[in-house]
Design goal:
By secondary structure, this protein is an alpha+beta fold. It has 12 helices and 16 strands.
């Protein structure tokens, strides 16, 4: 720990330019967020730029006491049919000193061309390793940069963190550092900071913080970059003045959200595929799932036949409740189709399943109420109910049935006196209303049947093949009403 302190004492002190510099818990949380940008060509209209790539930045807090930062920057684009991009992975202290950084730039043009620079701290110097890769050759170079001559060195990852901090505190002034290009050349890096002012960007009037960064090489070449940020440190636009493309904030981003993580609104049906990053992820998942399903069906041809049989049966039967029909259909193919009716904790589980299947065959399903009736006890219950019905409640039931018969006879006499040209629809409606009135009269009979077992009744079904004893009595009454 003491060695690190001695090393960092030899590096620049940010308080030289910002005397009130500090990063507390609140500022650290404000610096850590992800942002997504798009790469556009400059030769397009500023209001209608076509994206050619994506650019993402992520800053995280790391370390045992969360006093260090991990910066991850990744970009990809396609220009003139050639795919290229860059990647930066950097660890930085809370005073913007680089601990380690690996930066890569690549392009595919008749093969891979790649440049990589690695920067790390060793003893009293920066250890730099350069790697150049082309289709026919790969070379590397190692050199050390002393702290004495490069004490103001700031890496590209630290540059991202610094710009966010300057926007948060609304700093005004000029900062001067050193940086290293991808080729390993040392350059002078100057930051010209303009405080927040109101300006129009992408047809929106916003409060914008501006940083103009100038990289001056030893040969006199100057590269200028102008970055527009919000007061929270989010990049609205990043313009390389000497290259043909520009960075813009994702148009789906909502700048008014106060949370530290940016929210991406749900894309509309006709515009989601214009987001290159989202469309690329969609295609990756789509083709991956298609490949998985195709491989599985190729290895298991019986699945295809099983689905074909199910669809054929579904088209023939045409059930009203497709979900229940599907459950019952595929339940037969389950490994343990009866587990929901038995307890797996019993030792004689297999015997219980067999016995239940055997007993189920002796049951009769009532087509009206939908309950199973024990076939072995059906005769006994029927005889007891008939006896109860004919002896104990003979007088009461006779009154009910006779009233039904008299009502039917009176209705029949009245029907014969009506005109013959009454439509069938009116007759059907009269019968339905008559049946509804009669239901209250044979409610007493239903109560007598409930002495043995309670069932729900089907109020409109009169076509019965297998019914329980209670429903059988009701069915007889319905037949009387029809006659």
């Amino acid at each position: 720990m003491s060695d690190k302190k001695e090393i960092f004492c030899k590096l620049f002190d940010i308080r030289k330019w910002i005397p009130e510099f500090s990063i507390d818990y609140i500022k650290r949380a404000a610096l850590c967020f992800r942002e997504s940008l798009i790469v556009c060509l400059k030769n397009e209209s500023m209001n209608d730029m076509k994206p050619i790539g994506s650019y993402s930045i992520l800053v995280e807090s790391i370390g045992p006491k969360a006093q260090e930062f991990l910066i991850h920057v990744q970009s990809s684009m396609s220009i003139d049919g050639h795919f290229g991009g860059s990647k930066v992975i950097s660890s930085v202290t809370s005073k913007f000193h680089c601990l380690e950084e690996k930066r890569t730039e690549f392009i595919y043009e008749n093969g891979l061309y790649e440049k990589t620079i690695f920067i790390g701290i060793e003893d009293n110097c920066y250890h730099v390793k350069l790697t150049h890769t082309c289709p026919c050759d790969k070379s590397s170079e190692i050199k050390d940069l002393s702290f004495y001559t490069n004490s103001r060195l700031i890496s590209e990852g630290a540059n991202i963190l610094l710009m966010r901090y300057l926007a948060l505190i609304n700093y005004e002034g000029i900062l001067s550092f050193q940086s290293i290009s991808i080729d390993g050349d040392s350059t002078e890096s100057n930051y010209i900071c303009t405080p927040i002012e109101c300006m129009e960007l992408d047809n929106r009037v916003l409060n914008v913080y501006t940083i103009e960064r100038k990289l001056c090489r030893e040969d006199g070449t100057v590269h200028t970059m102008r970055t527009y940020l919000t007061a929270k440190g989010r990049i609205l636009r990043h313009n390389w003045l000497d290259v043909p493309y520009i960075l813009k904030i994702n148009p789906l981003a909502d700048l008014n959200i106060p949370s530290k993580t940016i929210r991406i609104e749900t894309p509309l049906k006709d515009s989601w595929n214009k987001d290159i990053e989202m469309f690329s992820k969609y295609l990756d998942i789509k083709f991956s799932k298609i490949a998985e399903e195709t491989e599985y069906l190729a290895d298991h041809p019986e699945i295809k036949q099983l689905i074909a049989d199910y669809i054929q049966i579904l088209l023939v039967v045409k059930p009203e409740n497709v979900i229940d029909f599907t459950i019952q259909h595929f339940k037969a193919f389950a490994k343990n189709p009866m587990t929901w009716e038995t307890s797996i904790l019993k030792e004689d589980y297999d015997n219980n399943v067999t016995s239940q299947l055997t007993e189920k065959k002796l049951d009769t399903l009532c087509n009206i109420c939908g309950f199973y009736v024990d076939y072995t006890a059906l005769k006994k219950i029927c005889s007891e109910e008939i006896t109860c019905f004919t002896q104990e409640n003979h007088e009461e039931n006779s009154k009910v049935i006779s009233s039904i018969d008299s009502k039917n006879s009176n209705d029949c006499m009245s029907d014969t006196e009506e005109k013959l040209d009454i439509s069938t629809l009116i007759n059907q409606s009269n019968f339905s209303s008559q049946l509804k009135k009669t239901c209250d009269q044979y409610e007493d009979i239903i109560k007598i049947c409930d002495k043995y077992k309670s069932y729900t009744k089907c109020s409109e079904c009169s076509k019965v093949s297998k019914i329980c004893t209670k429903c059988s009595i009701i069915d007889q009454i319905l037949h009387k009403l029809k006659d």
